[in-house]
Design goal:
Strand 4 (about 55) and strand 5 form a beta hairpin. With about 625 residues, this protein is an alpha+beta fold. The termini are far apart. The strands form eight sheets. Strands 13-12-16-17-19-18 form a six-stranded mixed beta sheet, covered by helices on one side. The chain has a five-stranded mixed beta sheet with strand order 1-6-7-3-2. Strands 22-24-23 form a three-stranded antiparallel beta sheet. It has 22 helices and 24 strands. The chain has four domains: about 5-155, Schlafen, AAA domain (Methyltransferase, Cobalt-precorrin-4 Transmethylase, Domain 2, 2-Layer Sandwich); about 160-400, Heat Shock Protein 90 (2-Layer Sandwich), CATH 3.30.565.60; about 420-500, Winged helix-like DNA-binding domain superfamily/Winged helix DNA-binding domain (Arc Repressor Mutant, subunit A, Orthogonal Bundle); about 520-615, Arc Repressor Mutant, subunit A. Helices cover about 35% and strands about 15% of the residues.
């Protein structure tokens, strides 16, 4: 039996999503708590995680080992429920996922919940997924809305989301000029291909833009053909939220207004192929091209060109065009950024490792591949990472934003050890910085360069063991060289706020806010909010807390909001700063629900979107 200390468990929480449950039962011998199944569903539908039965977390961030005395009874209850169909619809656990371990000498059950395969989602409670499907957020387990569940169901049954044959759409809905441009490139890449002799419609059929649904016998234009070659207005008929957007910004700050932009504006088609052509030219216009020969001919293609091309192609072929977020591509002096609607079909770790592909739009992927754009399945992201590493730049940052169902990729053209960051840290900490081991210096430099870091980001950059990374982060916090926010996997680390020289996050002003960008602390509230800070301090003191914990139960957060809003109106902006939470997160998971339950009331009842809108506890 493996043995761990409680500190080992807490450290594990920085690398995986972790939940601890007392699980004592009425007799004190142990039972599977009802809340476990919501967590099981949520972790399976998100990124997986670990649940420890027999460890209590109360209050948030404070752990206590209680022990499970009747291990056999609890394990049998787990397996009986998993193999039945009344409580949960699907068992994704094996024997290896349920282990008995010793923590501080006491028996505890560790349940490792894997990320469910796309084909197995949604994992839900009871027979009906609607209202019974949960998602994991850093605050806990939340019910998925019906739109999200419908997308999960569609993702589970449709291997390729762009394969569907459309009713009442045909070649007249496509742009002739786009098709001609595509065929010209196809001819240049494959000059001997017999498809070049075919008519336009036959050619489109060969590349997959048109086809036949064998189940229904219906033939016609596929979704892939419409997205790739269609007119903007016809694409919008099928995908109302469709939008492609390229922005060039002159400075390394998100709030800087664009100086060049490509969006569908009536002057061009607005389809994917034309967007790729226009955007790729603008992305690579200023890239330096060293003189190099390939088979005696000068080549203008560099590893940077290749990485940017792969990133742009990946953004388009993996996007969920039923989502609410736009395709967004940003060029700044310090980086390139790519955003697409939809979460990844494989984990971030697997995508970086490569070798396994689950493309959302396989027909579109084929069309790009036919003209030499996009690499073999499962090799695109590794190639981007490899090419960027060859430049000795910071490794790309690939991440998901589950709250808004979007995927983000940042390619920073910044040295792994930028002189500016090193000098700033040397000036700030002096001999203390110079004497640090390499891992600790890398952590500080990354924090200075990227605004903030977490355990996962350092794991991408450094080859050290996860336990050593946890120890290094803890040491830097103890030495007051880093500030920690949040607990377990929600933890982020940053330099003292006024000392960071990092450029702002690329997607800070995206069309949908990025929930993974930590909000500012309450100290950044405007000066006229001193009373609010004093009120918050008084409430926290009454709860035996010194600050807002990284994790709070849903009920505790609701109670805190009500107490803050008692007898005074508070804006969403101020609530965000006070609670150290993203505005969209607070609005979606708390304010909207509490308004509907008549727990809160609006300051401006006739205009819900009033720029000065604020909220107060409902008056009796």
């Amino acid at each position: 039996m493996n043995e761990f200390s409680l500190q080992d468990i807490i450290s594990i929480g920085e690398t995986v999503d972790l939940e601890c449950k007392a699980a004592q039962g009425r007799d004190g011998n142990g039972e599977v708590p009802g809340s476990f199944w919501e967590t099981y569903s949520a972790m399976a539908n998100t990124d997986g995680g670990e649940v420890y039965l027999g460890i209590e977390e109360k209050p948030a961030g404070v752990f206590n080992v209680l022990e499970i005395k009747d291990i056999g009874k609890v394990k049998k209850s787990l397996w009986d429920t998993l193999h039945g169909k009344n409580k949960v619809n699907r068992n994704i656990l094996s024997d290896a996922n349920i282990q008995v371990i010793l923590v501080n000498g006491k028996q505890v059950i560790r349940i490792t919940v894997p990320r469910a395969r796309r084909q197995d989602r949604p994992v839900h409670l009871g027979p009906n997924p609607f209202g019974n499907t949960y998602l994991r957020r850093h605050e806990g387990d939340y019910k998925a809305d019906d739109e999200t569940i419908r997308r999960m169901i569609a993702e589970s049954v449709e291997d390729s989301r762009d394969d569907r044959v459309l009713d009442d759409f045909g070649i007249e809905d496509l742009e002739k000029e786009t098709i001609a441009a595509y065929r010209n490139r196809f001819s240049a890449v494959k000059p001997e291909n017999p498809w070049l002799a075919l008519s336009a419609e036959e050619f489109l059929n060969k590349i997959g833009a048109f086809g036949k649904d064998r189940a229904t016998g219906k033939s016609g234009l596929r979704v892939a053909g419409l997205l790739m070659f269609g007119r903007f207005d016809t694409i919008k008929e099928v995908f109302p939220n469709y939008m492609v957007d390229y922005q060039e910004r002159s400075e390394a700050r998100a709030e800087v207004r664009w100086i060049d932009r490509v969006v569908p504006d009536g002057t061009w088609s607005g389809n994917l192929y034309d967007f790729f052509q226009k955007t790729y030219r603008k992305l690579t216009t200023d890239l330096k091209i060293p003189f190099q020969l390939r088979e005696g001919v000068r080549s203008d293609d560099t590893p940077i060109h290749e990485a940017v091309r792969e990133a742009l192609t990946n953004t388009l072929i993996h996007a969920d065009y039923t989502g609410r977020v736009s395709i967004l591509v940003v060029k700044r002096p310090d980086m390139f950024g790519f955003r697409n609607p939809g979460l990844m079909r494989v984990s971030v770790e697997q995508a970086i490792l490569g070798g396994l592909s689950d493309c959302r739009n396989r027909r579109i992927q084929d069309m790009f591949r036919y003209v030499g754009l996009g690499d073999h399945a499962g090799s695109g992201i590794p190639k981007i990472y490899r090419n960027w590493k060859e430049q000795h730049w910071r490794l790309p940052l690939l991440r998901e934003d589950p709250t808004h169902e979007q995927t983000l990729l940042e390619l920073r053209m910044i040295s792994l050890l930028p002189e500016e960051s090193v000098k700033m840290l040397d000036d700030l900490f002096g001999e203390r910085f110079r004497k640090l081991p390499e891992l600790e210096r890398i952590i500080l430099i990354t924090s200075a360069t990227e605004e903030m870091v977490n355990h996962d980001r350092i794991k991408e950059i450094a080859s050290d063991h996860p336990k050593d990374i946890s120890a290094a982060l803890a040491y830097l916090v103890h030495e007051k060289m880093l500030i920690k926010q949040g607990e377990t996997r929600a933890s982020f680390y940053r330099l003292p706020r006024k000392l960071s020289i990092a450029p702002s996050s690329l997607f800070q002003d995206s069309l949908v806010p990025n929930s993974q960008d930590l909000p500012a602390n309450s100290q950044d509230l405007p000066a006229n909010s001193q009373d609010l800070k004093a009120k918050l301090s008084e409430i926290l003191n009454s709860l035996g807390l010194q600050k807002i914990p990284g994790k709070m139960s849903n009920n505790n957060m609701r109670d805190l909001i009500l107490r803050l809003c008692d007898n005074s109106y508070i804006s969403l902006h101020d609530l965000s700063k006070l609670l150290d939470r993203d505005q969209t997160f607070i609005q979606q998971y708390y304010i909207s629900k509490m308004l509907s339950e008549s727990l809160l009331e609006l300051k401006y009842t006739n205009n819900k979107n009033h720029p000065d809108q604020a909220y107060r506890k409902k008056q009796a």
